[in-house]
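Posted in: Protein Modeling Q&A

I'm a second-year student putting together a small comparison for a lab meeting, and my supervisor asked me to include a predicted structure for DUF985 domain-containing protein. I've never done this before, so apologies if this is the wrong subforum. The sequence is pasted below exactly as I got it from our records. If anyone can share the structure token output, I'd also love a short note on what stands out.
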Amino acid sequence: MHNKADYIIQKLGLQKHPEGGYFKETYRSNKNVFVEDLDGKRNFSTCIYFLITNEAYSAFHKVSQDEIWHFYEGSCIHLHLISPDGTFRMQKIGNAWNAGELPQFVVPAQTWFAAEVIQTKAYALVGCTVSPGFDFKDFQLADKKQLLEEYPEHEQIIDRLTR
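Accepted answer (user: helix_wrangler)
Welcome! Here is the predicted structure, written out as tokens:
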């Protein structure tokens, strides 16, 4: 792994995430809201640090809420999205605005998505904000076989970015 990534993981106290990469929750609001669609209370908002590398990509998953990605430093990320209707989109997340990168991007609720660092031996540090707040009850890691059955037209990217 990249020396700077190792330093950031240690300095920020990041832990391995089930989807891949490393994370640490940095904020969870003290107030709750009842969300009927989610069958219960959720915090108003949550936020994490999230770091990925070439080896530790973020595998396809979805959450029940919108998720906002904020780019902090490192290499450009390719964020791959498959909407519920099967539409595929790739968005570059980074600071090279002239190259089509965005420093902030919202992944809509119930969208399958995965993220990878494209540059070799590189990392990216981002923040992810979820509102209403994240709860693992609202998280679903993709099953490769099931996702391929549902979206066979995206076989190449699904095969590459699921575990």
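A couple of things worth pointing out for your meeting: The CA atoms of residues 65 and 109 lie 4 Å apart. The first strand starts at residue 15 and ends at 16.
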